Amino acid sequence: MTEVAQGSGTGHELAAGNEVVSEVALIVNGERRTVRAKTIADVIGFFGLEGKPVIVEADGAILTKPQWDGAPVRDGMRIELVQFVGGG
Predict the structure, then answer these.
(1) pTM of the prediction?
(2) Domains, the chain, with CATH or none
């Protein structure tokens, strides 16, 4: 298991279609991070984890992949991202 806490977002707002997604201050894997995100799915995208096996815990609750699009993020939210990697 590997925890993931990297991202490359810059700027304060991101236009997503007709919506503007503002930056939110999160605690990701124990580190304070500023992320352009409206939902957990956006956080997954910010860290480049789309399509990868990831477990998400948000404020103590495990979220399944179908929940990510509808799970809003807010300032101060604690998120744990755990990715499984193989090796020998």
Answers:
(1) 0.75
(2) 2-83 (3.10.20.30)
> Which phi-psi region, left, alpha or beta, contains residue 33 (left: φ > 0; alpha: ψ -120 to 50)?
beta
Burial of 27 from C-beta contacts in 10 A (0-12 / 13-18 / 19+): middle
Q: What is the pLDDT of residues 11-67, one digit of tens each?
A: 344 445 556 668 999 999 999 999 999 999 999 999 999 999 999 999 999 999 999
Both tokens of residue 74?
A: 């807010």
Q: How far apart are CA 78 and CA 53, in angstroms?
A: 20
Collapsing DSSP states into helix, strand and coil, what is residue 53? coil
80: β partners:
57
In this structure, the dihedral spanned by the alpha carbons of residues 58, 67, 69 and 54, taken in order and rounded to 10 degrees, is 60
